[in-house]
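Journal club prep — side note

Before the paper discussion, L.F. wants everyone to see what a predicted structure for a comparable chain looks like in C-alpha cell form. Sequence:
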Amino acid sequence: MAKVTIPFDGKPLRFQVPDANLIEVLSPARSRPLIRLGKEIEKALDNPIGQKPLQDWVRPTDRVILISDDNTRLTPADRIIPPMLDRLNAAGVADENISCIMALGTHRYMCREELIAKVGPGVLERIRVFNHEWRDPAALVDLGVSRHGTPLLINRAVVEADVVIGLGAIVPHHIPGFSGSSKIIQPGVSGAGTTAQTHILSCESGGDSFLGIHDNPVRSDMDDIADRVGMSTIFNVVLDSDGRVCGLFFGEMRASYRQGIELARRIYGVPYCETPDIVLANSHPCNLDFWQSHKSLYPAQRMIKKGGSIICCTPAPEGVSPVHTELLSFTSWSSAKIKEAYHAGELKNGVACALAIAWAMVREKAEIITVSEGISPEEKEALGHIHAPDIGSALKIAFDHQGTAARLTVLTHAPDMLPIHTPAR
C-alpha cells in the first residue's frame, strides 16, 4: 500500500492507496524562497520593470490608492506596503493622501482583525484601509463599457485616484488564465454586473477553462478595464506551495506580469503522462469556503478521463458561500440550463451563475465526490456532488464506480496547479 499525505485543515491528513492503483502524487515544484524578503522588496522597488522608481514620477499632490488582494490570498501585503509608503513619502505624498482598498470582488467584507492581519497594524495607523463595498451602488462609478462590451462599474475611490497600484499574487486561474495583475481591478474592485460579464465570458470559451492560458478574451478584457481606470503599476508576487515568496515583480503592469507568469509556470506547472480514472484534488490553500475551494476542480477537469471520478477534499468552514447563498437553488442544473436561465433573465446573480456553469461543466466531464465537514450532505446534493464523510469512503465510491483496476492521481495543492500533458515517449 502506498502512503499518501496531503495538507488538510491546517494539519497533515494521511491515507493509503494500493500501489497498483496509484499513478502519482503531484505537487507544485519545490522552489527556493527569497531569504531576505525585506531587502528583496526594497530591491524590487528600487529597480522597477519597464518603469521609473515611484519617487521619480509620483507627484506630491497625487492621491494614491493601493489595491490589495484580500484574506483569501497569501500575498504578504504587510511586508510590501510599508516600504512602498516610505517611497511615496519620499516623493512628497503625505500619508493622508494614500489609501489601501481590499479587492474583495464579491467576497464577504473583511473585519478589522482581518484587515490588521493583512496589512499590519502599522499600516492601519498610517493610512486609510477599507473594504471594496461592492454591494453599495453609491461606492461605484459607471464608466460605460469596455472594448469587449463589458459594463464598467468600478469603485469610486479607485476611479478618483491619481495613482493606482495593484498588489497581488500570480497563480494559475481558470477564468483569466492566471491570477494577478489586472485581476485586482476586475473583479477586485468592480461591481457585480461587471464581474458577471467576464465570468460568463470565461464559460463560453468552448473548452474546459482558460486555466494556464495567458492569451485569452477574459485577460484581454481585464487589461482593458485596468487601462480605463489608470492602473499602470503592479507589485505581484509568486509563492511556493507553502506560501513563501519566490519572486517579486514590480513595475509596469504588462511587463511585470509577463515575467511573473514565467516563474509561476515553473512552480505550478506539473507534467503528467497518464490520463487518470480518478483524481483526488485537495483544496489547500483555498480552504475557506467552496466559493474558494472550487478552484481545485479545474486542474482535475483538465486531467481526468471522460466519465471519471474527481474527489474534492476541502474543509470549507464557511460552507459553500456566505455571500451567494441563493446559488444552491440551481447549482445541480446542467451548464446549458443555467446559461439559458441567466440569458433569459430568470436568474439574476450573474457571478453565481458563471461559477455554477463552470462547476456544471466539470460534472459533465466527471462525477464529483466531495469530502468536507463544512458542507452538509444536503448542500453537496444541491451542488450535484456525491457525499463522502471521509477520504476512505470517497475512494471506495470512486473505485466502485471506476473499477478495481482504476488508476488514481493525487493533487496535493490542486487550486495552485497547472497540469501539463506530456505524452510518454
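L.F.'s comment for the group: The two ends are 28 Å apart (CA to CA). Keep this in mind when we get to the figures.
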